[in-house]
Amino acid sequence: MTSTIVPLTGGWRLEHSYARLPAGFFASVSPTPVSSPRLVLLNRPLAEELGLDPAVLAQSENAAWFAGNVLPPGASPIAQAYAGHQYGNFVRLGDGRAILLGEQITPRGERFDIQLKGSGPTPYSRRGDGRAALGPMLREYIISEAMHALNIPTTRSLAVVATGE
Q: Per-domain residue ranges for the chain?
């Protein structure tokens, strides 16, 4: 089986309320494929909280979901725009290496953003944006799970993938 075939949905129930905003709030993008995605880490407890099937997500061919080579069912990838002031000037900014796939609807009806980080440059990228190294992604996973265990609100990582690059 190749990474372009996804045999099961894995429990994905994605909606995308952000994509209904006016065009100035986001840009439609496609993740940049990687050569050999390999699942390094899967956060099974988080997958279960999200209503996803860890057994399906852990299948080697489904590492392509987390690398951006294949989109999960219902995904509609965008990079979000935002703005700020830099050096006294208004500057339009946005996600430089993060792509929002949609919002996973949990069995309890909660919405959680599902985002690919390090999935390649977006229209808002500047120098240094695009990919993310494995070490910082593992560190982000460890720190975010420690914060979660301490009941400190935080983002969480569902998976970490090596790209083969």
A: 14-162
Spatial distance between the Cα atoms of 89 and 6, rounded to a whole number of angstroms: 46
Per DSSP, 114 falls in state E
State in Å, rounded, how far the first CA of the chain is from the last one: 21
**Residue 108, C-beta contacts closer than 8 angstroms, at least 6 positions apart:** none
What stretch of H or E contains 67? helix 63-67
Structure tokens belonging to residue 63: 């590492």
- The pair phi, psi for residue 101, each rounded to 5°, is -85, -30
Tokens read off for 120: 């390649």
* Rounded CA separation 65/39 (Å): 10
pTM of the model: 0.86
Give the contacts of 35 (CB within 8 A, at least 6 positions apart). Answer: 163, 164, 165
Over the stretch 133-156, which tens digit does the pLDDT of each residue have?
Answer: 899 999 999 999 999 999 999 999
Give the residue among 16, 23, 7, 43 at the shortest CA–CA distance from 99. 16
Phi, psi for 39 (deg, rounded to 5): -70, 120
Mean pLDDT across 8-12: 78
